[in-house]
Amino acid sequence: MAKKSSKSSSKDRVLELRTLIHEHDYNYHVLDKPVITDFEYDKLFRELQDLEAAHPELVTHDSPTQRVGAEALEGFEKVAHRRPMISLSNTYSIDEVREFDERVKKFLDSEKSIEYFCELKFDGLAVELIYEKGRLTGAITRGDGNVGENVLSNVRTMRSIPLALKGKTPALLEVRGEALMMKKEFAKLNEAQQEAGEQPFANPRNAAAGAVRQLDPRITAKRPLRMFCYGPGVVEGHKSTSQEDWLDYLRQHGLPALHSAPWKKIRPRLKEGYSHEIPLGAVCANIEEAIEYYSTILKHRHELPFDIDGVVIKVNSFALQDRLGTIARSPRWATAAKFPPEQATTIVSDIAVQVGRTGALTPVAIMQPVRVGGVTVTNATLHNQSEIDRKDVRIGDTVIIQRAGDVIPEVVQVVLDKRPAKSKKFRIPENCPVCSEPAVLPEGEVVTRCVNSLCPAILNESLKHFAARRAMNIEDLGDKIIEQMTEHGLVKSFSDLYKLSKEQIQSLPRQGDKSAQNIYDSIQKSANTTLSRFIFGLGIRFVGEQTAKSLAANLKTLDAFLEATEEQLVEIEDIGPKVARSIMLRLENKDFRKEIKKLIENGVQIEKPKKVSASSQTLNGVSIVITGTLPMGRDEIKDLVLSLGGKTPGSVSKNTNYVLAGDEAGSKLDKAQELGVPVLDWDGFQKLIGG
Ligand code: IVH
After folding, report:
1. How far is CA 102 from CA 55, 108, 288, 311, in A?
2. Among the four 114, 460, 469, 584, which has the fewest Cβ within 10 Å?
């Protein structure tokens, strides 16, 4: 008897936990407004995992614990769409948008203004989600429009997509949308990609498309993908009356879709710039309002957290859409008003080869300065030899370059008609351009490397990395000084820095008394550091800042790090076999160990790990937006808030607890005042954190 009641109460709790977790996933991944801390979320998640482990019969396919787990696939299964996924006709100018409106009116034989629903044209990968009786049972890429690929195992890992719909569910709901990656997440991913010695992605679209079409869902799960739903496929058991109504319906069922409002209400708010509080779908009373929407979004496109390549203008009423129908594989009731591309043409005056910290030889196109997307561009990375070969970029070539949002400019293509006679294919040199030792291209890799451990370029780049703000933070030791120090033989290793006297620094060309003192002081100051900064600074291949933090958090002391075994390392979260192997290779190297010993002998001191007790987490769950100039560096304040259990989001919303405002605080302060978020000055902040 007792057993039965415990089982039924477990069942209730499992159901309750699932609902709660779905709710929190939605708040976090769709609304960007978490209402609990990550810690509390993890607690709920773990409770659910434990209950399911104790009662395996309660595990269902739509439990949040079941998002990942699937094995890698051999290939994707081809699946037909119930209704073809057709595409949109494009317009490239305001005149063409007006012509579109004329065609709509003519077809409907009406003089009256047409109400349009305007939304963003997301630059991602189109995917159709299929919910049967409210459960996610299918996810298909667009493919050729008729037949796509079944990517359900991957889509299930995306936390912005509900595995089960909320509320009263229709028998069948097919919804189409775009999977994409936020610009911020993309930047982080590319940084990690580069740290891991892998090819960076050209843009968020490629990264998202690659993640959705990844055969191993465990890899997809690690790529932060988002989804925006916009259009219906086959829907049974529900009828929406307009695009506006349809998006509302999707959101009510927990699906991610743009919020909307009448354009007249949005217009005054968007004027100043975009904030994520502003709805981005607009109901426009006529085509002129739709054009205003287009022009305003065009102006603010770079402020959006994701890439778009235009706006989509749709006849709002579904009844009118039905009357208009489709022609030649695109609907008569909609148009994609595309943005002018951010491309420009220039000439490659040279191709330089840079040597990085890991010895990687990276070719860079040096170009005649050209303005694109609002900035002047002079270099574009060419990544590696195989990229150069693919595009066949040569010195003297006229090239089309592109700058998509915040992404590093890239060469899109060569204008072959303008290629000078007798130009030669470019080859990365066989020897390192800095030390002249032979470079190597390992079998099966694309990156050529200098492997001379005494190469001055590697030494310089390693020292720059060691001194960097996120590593040892040697504030006054700039790149130029490092280069002078190595050139004059003052510094041959990290540990040499801590033996330098002020006089030695002053002996460098153009070095004054004051600046030598500053450099000396900041080197000394950096000697007191943390284990994670120290490990990160050592520049071990594949060990980025995040990995260094995990190592420090788990191993706690330098001795434990030096004695770590490979088995121990792979047990640590975020550390896979490749990273563990790379760390072991360093730890097994006698010179590396000697260098660490010398660093300690020369005065580097690693702080004892602070015991983080619950009572020191004074900012648990508190979110503080930092703005303006403050007595402490932005990154230091962030670290402080994080270490006390708080969060430091980048923008102000209703859920922000405080705004910490220094001098010259700008729009974030205005926003705080507008939303009634309490504003702290430096003293107030000190009080909040207890002195
Ligand atoms: S509606 C019947 N709305 O653009 C047309 N499409 O060429 C259904 N896209 O394949 C498309 N954002 O991948 C629609 N807000 C949006 C969109 C959007 C991006 C993509 C979609 C489609 C292509 C159209």
Report:
1. 63, 10, 12, 18
2. 469
Catalytic residues: 121
Query: Taking a C-beta distance cutoff of 8 angstroms, is the pair 227, 257 a contact?
Result: no
Angle at 340 between CA 335 and CA 343, to 5 degrees: 145
What confidence score (pLDDT) does residue 612 get? 54
Ligand 1 centroid to residue 322 C-alpha, Å: 17
Is 2.60.40.1120 the CATH number for 90-338? no
125 lines ligand 1 (CB under 6 A): no
Classify residue 639 by burial, with Cβ atoms within 10 Å: 0-12, 13-18, 19+.
middle
At the second CATH level, the architecture of 615-689 is 3-Layer(aba) Sandwich (3.40)
User: In the chain, where are the structural domains located?
Assistant: 6-66, 90-338, 344-440, 456-526, 531-606, 615-689
Over residues 603-658, the pLDDT tens digits come to 999 998 665 555 667 787 788 988 888 888 887 888 788 778 777 777 788 888 99
Tell me which residue of 226, 230, 229, 62 sits closest to 159, measured CA to CA. Answer: 226
Atom of ligand 1 nearest to the CA of 258: 15
pTM above 0.90, yes or no: no
The span from the CA of 281 to the CA of 298, in Å, is 14
Ligand 1 midpoint to CA 275 (Å)? 24
- 338: Cβ below 6 Å to ligand 1? no
Using DSSP's 3-state secondary structure scheme, residue 207 falls into helix
Q: Same topology for domains 456-526 and 531-606, yes or no?
A: yes
Ligand 1 pocket test, pick from 86, 87, 293 with the greatest ligand atom count within 8 Å of Cβ, gives: 87
Q: Which CATH superfamily is domain 6-66 in?
A: Helix hairpin bin (1.10.287.610)
**Superfamily for domain range 531-606:** 5' to 3' exonuclease, C-terminal subdomain (1.10.150.20)
**Which of 39-43, 335-339, 664-668 has the largest mean confidence?**
335-339
DSSP 609: P
What integer pLDDT is reported at residue 340 of this predicted model? 76
Structural fold of domain 344-440: OB fold (Dihydrolipoamide Acetyltransferase, E2P) (2.40.50)
- Residue 333 Cα distances to 156, 195, 336, 337, angstroms: 32, 47, 11, 13
Q: Where are the alpha helices (DSSP H) in 468-501?
A: 479-487, 494-497
Quick: pLDDT tens for 338-351. 987 678 899 999 99
Q: With respect to CATH, is domain 456-526 assigned 1.10.3090.10?
A: no
Q: Does residue 31 line the site of ligand 1, with CB under 6 A?
A: no
Q: What separation in angstroms does the CA of 18 have from each of 70, 372, 449, 666, 667?
A: 20, 48, 50, 41, 39
Angle between helices 577-587 and 590-601 (to 10 degrees): 70
Q: What is the pLDDT of residue 128?
A: 97
